[in-house]
Each structure stands twice: as C-alpha cells, then as structure tokens.
UniProtKB/TrEMBL annotation:
It comes from Chanos chanos. Transmembrane segments: none annotated. Residues 83-124 form the B box-type domain. InterPro entries: TRIM/RBCC (IPR050143), Znf-RING_euk (IPR027370), Znf_B-box (IPR000315), Znf_RING (IPR001841), Znf_RING/FYVE/PHD (IPR013083), Znf_RING_CS (IPR017907). This is Zinc-binding protein A33-like.
C-alpha cells in the first residue's frame, strides 16, 4: 500500500518525489527543474516526455494541489515507517534479528529452534542500515541513468528533425537530378527523331523522283502502244501504207536500237528493239539509321555520361574526417617536370614506382578500401620533381 502510494508522488523524469511540481497543458506533471532541463535541451520545439505534445515556457504552471498532496503523502509514509516494530507471527515476539542464511526476519525464539540452527544472524537495524546504504547507491545510479535518458529524449528528437530535414533536401536533390536526366532524354529523343525524319524525307524524295520518271515513260509508251494498235485495225492497204509512210515508220524506228538504225540488212523479223527500261530501275529501300537501330540505348548512355559532371565539395563543406595531404620531397627547379606518384601495394608494403605527369586543373581519385577495418579516410599525394631513381618505401 505504501509502495503504491509513493509511486503517485514520483516525477516521471527523475523518478524521485516531486520537488516544486508543475503541470503542462496536457495535464502531465513534473519537477520544475526536470521539465526546465527538457525545455533547455530541446533544439526545436519542446515536447512532453510522456505524450509528446509540444509546450513552451509559458505553458509551465505551478501545481499547488499536487505539491500539498506530496507533502501530506510524504508525512503519511514517514508515520507508517515509525509505527511499532513488526512481531513474529508464530511467537508474537519482536523481529529483532535477520537470518542471513535464509534472508528473513526472525525473533530471538526462532533463533534457538532447529530450523535455524547453525545459521548466521545479525541485528535487524544493522542489516537495515547496510541495506539502505546499498539501496541509496542503486537509487542514485538509477536516478542518474534516468536523468541521462530524459536528456537523451530531446536530443534524439532533434536528430530526428535533422534527419527529416535532410530527407527533404535529398529528395529535392534527387528529384532535380532525375528531372535533369529526363530532360536530357526528352531532348535527345527529339533530336534523334528529327534526324530520322530527315533521313526518311531524303529516301522518299529520291523514290518520288524515280516514280515520276517511270510514270512519264509509261504515259509515253501507252500513247505509242495505242497508236500502233489503232494502225493494225486499218484494213485497206493503201490507207495503212499512207499512215506508215507518214507516221508509223518513224515511230517504229524510234523503238529500234541505234545500231540497227543504219543497218540496211535488218528485217522486221530480225530487228532488235531498244528497251527503255535499261536505265530505269526500282529505287530500293535504303533508309537506315546505322548503329542507332540496334545500339541506340548504348550511344545515348555514352552521351549521357559525357554530360554528367561530378559534384565536388570545397574544403569548408567537406567531411572533416577526409584529409588530403601534399608534400614536396625535392625542391623545384626551373624547367623541371612535375609528376604525380601512385603507390601500388606489393606484399603488404607500398612502392613509389609509378609516376604520371601532373597537369593543371582539378584531379579526382577513387580509393578502393576493400575490407580493411583499420583503413582511415584520407589520401596522400606526393608532389615532387621527376627523377630517374625512385626509392622503395
């Protein structure tokens, strides 16, 4: 009963009896010092440790009824502890001894019984004082841990706010990056389609010119065919010969090969006619888009890579654990050549035997750390004058 009552006057933060209790609008109560510490340690808006509802300094109100109840309850608990000593339920004698063997209170009569023969006994007051000291140590430790935990709550809440803010920034950054990629693809798609349309227009235009030539020849041939067909219908020889001499002979001669035009031995049965189709051929489909037909995604991907620029942070915004150090082992001389040295790992050691020309501008390095747990963030670049004999490190 006393234990349940004492829990009602404990602060949820420090787990000790209320000291100058105050209340929040959410009806939860705390020690004034405890809730003030929560308010001071909050990076953003302070929140109730129990229900997480926000509050401010002006929301902290003194709880006089609770303070009076704490005083009355504490006095009542003290009176309970000062009541008469407990009696042995079997012998109705005062429980003055503590059996360390059985870890229980006993009276002087219980000590002499066979049940407790050979056991170790100490005065109850002495054991109580020792236990209280141990309890105080545990209570102090627990209260300190609870205080630390209560201080962690606003700090963790602040980290959550940072994470959410960072998430929004990263989300905006990712959206912008993807929008840039989408815009690049849209523009590239428009460009490729326009180029394909131009190629299609060229191919169709060439075919249309050939089509016009074919139609003209066909029209001319049809007119000649109709004229010759009509001449065959002339039944009178004199009329036919009149047409032949005036028109037909010239038309037929135009159809014959040129080498037969002057041949006097050529007869109608042996004459060879010149085909108009010799130089007229169907223009085949030659529309092609080259490697774009089968490897379009590869070429677009390659152009996309060329358009991507690495994001480089300046020294003021770079991770403080990332270090870049330079050293000059040899003084520069006029007209000498600067070189950049790489350090390949050979049998658990490094050799300084690879050099490259160091040009002006920005340089980027990719470092493979593999699975070495002792690897520290950093990159060492040795900058010196080129020389023939390079020592082994």
């Amino acid at each position: 009963m006393a234990s349940a009552l004492s829990l009602q006057i404990q602060c949820p933060v420090c787990l000790c009896d209320f000291t100058d209790p105050v209340s929040l609008p959410c009806k939860h109560s705390y020690c004034r010092q405890c809730i003030t510490s929560v308010l001071q340690n909050s990076v953003s808006q302070s929140k109730c440790p129990e229900c997480r509802l926000p509050f401010s300094q002006k929301d902290i109100k003194t709880n006089r009824p609770l303070r009076n109840m704490v005083d009355v309850t504490r006095e009542h608990l003290q009176n309970l502890s000062s009541q008469e000593d407990m009696l042995c339920p079997e012998h109705e004698d005062k429980l003055k001894l503590f059996c360390e063997t059985d870890c229980e209170l006993v009276c002087l009569i219980c000590k002499e019984e066979d049940e407790h023969r050979g056991h170790t006994f100490k005065p109850a007051k002495e054991v109580a004082e020792t236990s209280k000291e141990e309890l105080k140590g545990a209570l102090s430790f627990l209260a300190d841990e609870n205080r630390q935990l209560s201080e962690m709550i606003p700090k963790q809440d602040a980290e959550m706010v940072k994470t959410k803010h960072k998430y929004k920034n990263l989300l905006a950054l990712m959206s912008a990056e993807f929008e840039g990629l989408h815009q690049f693809l849209r523009e590239k798609e428009k460009e490729v389609k326009k180029h394909l349309e131009e190629e299609e227009s060229k191919a169709v235009m060439s075919m249309q010119r050939r089509m016009s030539t074919i139609k003209e020849l066909l029209k001319e041939g049809k007119e000649q065919e109709d004229e010759l067909q009509s001449a065959l219908q002339i039944s009178h020889a004199d009329r036919f010969l009149q047409w032949w001499s005036e028109t037909g002979f010239a038309v037929v001669e135009q159809i014959k090969l040129k080498e037969n035009e002057k041949s006097s031995k050529a007869t109608p049965s042996s004459a060879v006619y010149a085909s108009r189709l010799g130089s007229i051929k169907i223009t085949p489909d030659f529309l092609t888009f080259g490697p774009f037909e089968t490897h379009l995604s590869f070429f677009i991907w390659r152009e996309m890579l060329r358009s991507i620029k690495p994001v480089v942070k300046c020294a003021t915004t770079m991770d403080s654990n990332l270090k870049l150090s330079f050293s000059k082992d040899v003084e520069q001389q006029d007209g000498s050549e600067n070189v950049f040295a790489r350090f390949p790992k050979i049998q658990n050691r490094y050799r300084d035997d690879r050099t490259e020309n160091l040009r002006s501008g920005q340089w980027y390095w990719e470092v493979d750390v593999e699975v070495d747990p002792n690897w520290n963030l950093g990159l060492t670049v040795r900058h010196y004058q080129k020389r023939r004999n390079i020592p082994v490190l």
